[in-house]
Amino acid sequence: MTTDKNYLSDEELNALIAETESEGLVQAPKGLHAEVISRIDRNPAPSHKESKTEFYRFTYKVVLSVAAAVLLMAILPRSFDTKQHIPTREEVLNEKAAREEIHIIPQKQQPTKDELLEEQNKEELLEMLEKYITENGGITK
Question: Whose CB among 52, 54, 82, 115 lies 3.0–4.6 Å from 111's, allowing a Cys bridge?
Answer without folding.
Answer: 115
